[in-house]
Amino acid sequence: MNKNWSLSQEAFDALLDWLDSDRELAGIKYEQIRSRLIKIFTGRGCIDPEELADETINRVTSKLTDIQQEFTGDRARYFFGVANKVHLEYLRRKTPQPQSAPADSARIELEYHCLERCIARLSEEDRALLLKDYGAKGRTQSERRKVLADELGISLNALRIRVYRIRTALKECIEKCIQDSL
Amino acid sequence: MRSYLLGTLDRDQKTQFEERLIIDPSAYEDLLLGEEDLIDEYVAGELSALERDQFESHFLITAERQKNLRFGKLLQNYVNSHIEESPVPVPAFSFLQQPARRWVSVGLLATILGAAGIIIIRGFVNRREAASVVQQSSSRVMTVTLAPGSAGTHGSTAQRVNLPPHGVEVKLELQLANPTFRNYKSELFRENTSLKISDALRIEAKGEQRVVPFTVTGEMLSPGDYQVKLSGVLDSGADEFIDNYSFRVIE
User: Fold this and answer.
1) Which residue, among A103, A155, A166, A89, has the nearest Cα to A129 in the 3D structure?
2) Distance (Å, rounded) from C-alpha B176 to C-alpha B66?
3) Chosen domain end from A70, A93, A116
4) The sheet that has B209-217: what strands, in order across it?
5) CA of residue A97 relative to chain centroid, distance
6) N or C, fewer C-beta in 10 Å, chain A?
7) What is B137-250's CATH number?
8) Domain that holds residue A29
9) Which residues in chain A touch residue B33, judged by CB atoms under 8 angstroms apart?
């Protein structure tokens, strides 16, 4: 890929068209592919997975005219092949990994304050579920979850997904609370 | 999944998993759930020593996951400080309730209810004491498990501990990531003043987790912020600092 190549709106639109003729679905597919590429680069121990995912997408986009003529099949697979090449190049140029600085105590204090505020905004049901899921002493997480899933009459996986959604909402709320406080 | 997250799959297995990940929505969802589970187990000290190493050296490679770990620790701190507030049966009530149901006549029941009434009133008066019983074992010992690396003197993020009643001992269980020493030394501080030092402490197993027990008397604690400094004792007798633990005593 030409190093000076950058993703223009026109090129990005062409990528979306290639992913799906429905623009909304194409946007969803784009996000899915990007987030999965990030997880793949993370799993390979890359410290900047977002950058590598974007590099992969840019590379596919820059060759789109050729790819459209040659490639048939699941488009996500094509990204995976390009990601492998991007990863090899990353390994060759890999620089020492900087240690991330621990969060300072004022920041932790703020995060905790925001957590309290966000938990208070949860529904009573979600708050109780969260406390039960993490709370019972003397049991491991998997033991706790089995008991709780039985109590609620839902499958273990359904419980995990429910807790995951509550946590995700909490994280988003905390992020916003922190931004508002800074 | 777990092996993938901890970086222990061989190359072929890893490639197979990644190929599934890019096209299969359920694989991606499993990965997200697996990440959260692993973080929770790490925070709760439920990972083996080997898994902890793999978690720290491989899993925590990205800023996003480090942020998620911080969130997991915050959440655990919050939950630890709130589950103590849940209602707890006082042993005296259960002792009275069962015989009453089975054996007593109406007259005797009235007598017992009268006695129970007194106990209930006493229970309200000593509500704080009842709440603290959550952490007790059969004797008058209150057990508090502390995770390392809390926020130092900034107590609002430290674990909350109910003020122990008189005569109760507080067993602080200091969670340990790498149990590499034979003996440990702990020192309890309040506002940089040393309150108690114990050495020759030995590791205890608590499930898959390892803790160093450090017992102090309830009288030693009053509402406020405390820190515990944990050191390993070398064969030479010298100390090697390991970690700090923080907690806040509340009324």
Assistant:
1) A166
2) 19
3) A93
4) B141-146, B169-176, B209-217, B204-206
5) 21
6) C
7) 2.60.40.10
8) 9-93
9) 157, 160-161, 164
A89 shares a domain with A33: yes
Judge if A121 and A57 occupy the same domain.
no
Question: What is d(CA A144, CA A53) in angstroms, rounded to the nearest whole number?
Answer: 37
Amino acid (one-letter) located at B200: A
- Chain centroid to CA B35: 21
Strand partners for B204: B211
ipTM of the complex: 0.82
| pLDDT at position B110 over 90 | no
Distance CA B146, CA B188 (A): 13
Range(s) within chain B of domains with CATH label 2.60.40.10: 137-250
**Stretch among B92-96, B212-216, B226-230 having the lowest mean pLDDT:** B92-96
Q: A13 with A82, same domain?
A: yes
C-alpha triplet B152, B153, B154: angle, nearest 5°:
95
Which residue from B177, B214, B183, B167 is spatially nearest to B50, judged by alpha carbons?
B177
Helix, strand or coil, per DSSP, at residue A153: coil
Is residue A53 located within the same domain as residue A115? no
Give domain status of residue A41, yes or no: yes
Mutation pick from B13, B29, B61, B175 vs chain A, by most beta carbons of A within 10 Å, is B61
Give the confidence band of B117 by pLDDT, cuts at 50, 70, 90.
very low
Chain A residue numbers with beta carbons less than 8 Å from the beta carbon of B162 are none
CB burial readout A55-94, b (16+ within 10 A) else e = bbbbbbbbbeeebeeebeeebbebbbebbeebbeebeeee
Nearest CA in chain A to B82: A131
Of A49, A103, A164, the CB nearest to B70: A103
Q: Tell me how far apart the alpha carbons of residues A87 and A53 are, in angstroms, rounded to a whole number.
A: 10
Residues A122 and A77 in one domain: no
Q: How many residues are recorded in chain A? A: 182
The tally of domains found in chain A comes to 2
Question: Per the domain annotation, does A1 fall within a domain?
Answer: no
Mean pLDDT of A6-21: 85
- Which of A158, A153, A132, A127 has the alpha carbon at shortest distance from A143? A132
Place of tokens 């966000």: A118
Q: Do B38 and B59 touch, CB atoms closer than 8 A?
A: yes
Same domain, A67 and A37: yes
Tell me which amino acid residue A36 is: R
